[in-house]
Amino acid sequence: MGAGGAAVAAIVAAHAKRLQDVIDAFRVADATAPMRARSLQELGVTHESEVEELVSEGVVLSGPRGGTWYLDEATFIANRDATSRVSRHVLVGIAIAVLLIMGALALLVPVRNR
User: From residue 1, how far is each of 87, 88, 105 by CA, in Å?
Assistant: First the structure.
C-alpha cells in the first residue's frame, strides 16, 4: 500500500473510531429508547457529522422531547451486520482483481533466461 493508500486507510479508521465513540456515548448514557433520549450535549457528543450519518441510516432517532436522540440498537446491529457482509464481499473482489492483475502482468513480462 502506497502513501496515498495509507492516508485513505487512516482517514477511514479515524471516521470509524468517531462513529464508534458516538455509539458508545449513547450506550454509556443508556440513551437506547425514546424515553431515555438525551441531547447531544448531555451525551458529550461533538462529532455532529457522524451523528447526522447515523440519523440518515436510521440508527439514531429523534426522541420525544425536542433536541433529544436515542440509539436504536436493533437497527444498528442490522446495519452493522449488513455492512460487514458487504465489506467481506468487497475484500474478496479486490483480492480476486489483484490476483488477476498479477497473473496478467506475469504473462506480459518476459522471462529472462539465466
Answer: 18, 19, 18
